[in-house]
Design a protein that fits this description.
Blueprint: E1 20-22, E2 27-30, E3 41-46, E4 49-54, E5 60-65, E6 67-71, E7 77-84, E8 91-98, E9 104-106, E10 114-119, E11 126-131, E12 135-140, E13 148-150, E14 159-163, E15 169-173, E16 177-182, E17 187-192, H1 193-197, E18 209-211, E19 217-224, E20 235-242, E21 248-250, E22 257-263, E23 269-274, E24 282-286, E25 292-297, E26 301-306
Parallel strand pairs: 1-21, 2-25
Antiparallel strand pairs: 3-4, 3-26, 4-5, 6-7, 7-8, 8-9, 10-11, 11-12, 12-13, 14-15, 15-16, 16-17, 18-19, 19-20, 20-21, 22-23, 23-24, 24-25
Length: 307
């Protein structure tokens, strides 16, 4: 269900549209050596398993079978989704795994269909998607307390929560509107995606919108009308949107299909994807100040970074 594509419009995507420019000079540069002094860790997925990458040593550790990994800000735990059974007995639940000890803890949420955990920047809360009458936002503390559902007065589902940098607000969307919500479930602000992008980009339930540290630049992944030879799926690219100038800028280059996005506290951008249909997904790092992408992981997708 999660990957089902819901189109905002059937209009063809045009790179030359009036409100959109493209950052087309990004180069892929393979990283080499270890980053001494960089104590961060990155969780990512490869196939059916979740891994942790240590920036200081360059070593990768297999953690557990699962999907949707998200590492805690302190780099000690990874939240992930575990699927169980099939058919009418299908369940998917969020667990935590300790990176060092491999101890697994279930959050004990009394619901059989919740997924997509994302930690608040201070590690106090975990937000996620939970099925009620439709998809809503769940909130819980990692010690299993404080569980609640943030239900807006809407008959539409809300998808793919992300956090503001100060941890006070959650962003989530219903494919047409992006909502800014506080941790009490109160609506603070909303953005009309149709008006912002004039039906030139396509969004799905897995689209995430992150706000960068200037609180004026939004970064997100969107589906576009492009073709990669030998690949039959929908092509996605990473974009930024400036709330002041109303300008959209493409970050990943033409011919590259992205498949995961993350922003760290220094506004470094991480994404995964491939250029050729038979290539494995790789994980890259870039920023808005230069035109280079550094390859971090040869095989992997859906990165998240602990600070």
């Amino acid at each position: 269900m999660r990957r089902v594509i819901v189109f905002l419009s059937a209009l063809v995507f045009l790179i030359s549209c009036n409100n959109q420019t493209e950052k087309s000079t990004i180069q892929d540069v393979n990283s080499s050596g270890n980053n001494l002094g960089d104590s961060r860790k990155m969780a990512f997925q490869n196939g059916e398993f979740i891994y942790c990458y240590d920036f200081s040593t360059g070593e990768t550790k297999e953690l557990v079978k699962g999907v949707d990994p998200c590492i805690s800000p302190d780099g000690e735990w990874v939240a992930f989704t575990e699927s169980k059974n099939s058919g009418n007995n299908f369940k998917r639940v969020i667990n935590l795994i300790n990176i060092e000890s491999s101890i697994i803890q279930n959050l004990e949420i009394k619901d059989d269909n919740h997924y997509g955990a994302i930690w608040s920047p201070d590690g106090e809360f975990i937000a996620f998607s939970i099925m009620k009458e439709n998809w809503q936002l769940g909130l819980i503390k990692p010690d299993k307390t404080g569980f609640k559902v943030l239900e807006l007065a809407s008959d539409k589902s809300l998808y793919s929560p992300t956090w503001s940098r100060d941890g006070k607000f959650i962003f989530a969307h219903n494919l047409n509107v992006l909502y800014k919500i506080n941790t009490n479930g109160e609506l603070i602000e909303k953005y009309d995606l149709k008006k912002m992008f004039e039906d030139n980009l396509f969004f799905s339930s897995s689209t995430q919108f992150f706000m960068m540290s200037d609180y004026n630049t939004m970064i997100f992944e969107a589906e576009i009308d492009e073709i990669i030879d030998g690949f039959d799926g929908q092509i996605s690219a990473v974009f930024t949107y400036n709330l002041s100038t109303k300008e959209t800028q493409r970050i990943t280059k033409k011919g590259f299909c992205s498949s995961g996005l993350w922003i760290d506290e220094q506004d470094r951008i991480y994404f995964s994807g491939f250029e050729k249909s038979k290539e494995p997904h790789a994980i890259f790092q870039t920023n808005l100040n230069d035109n280079k992408s550094i390859k971090i992981i040869e095989k992997g997708y859906r990165p998240s970074i602990g600070q």
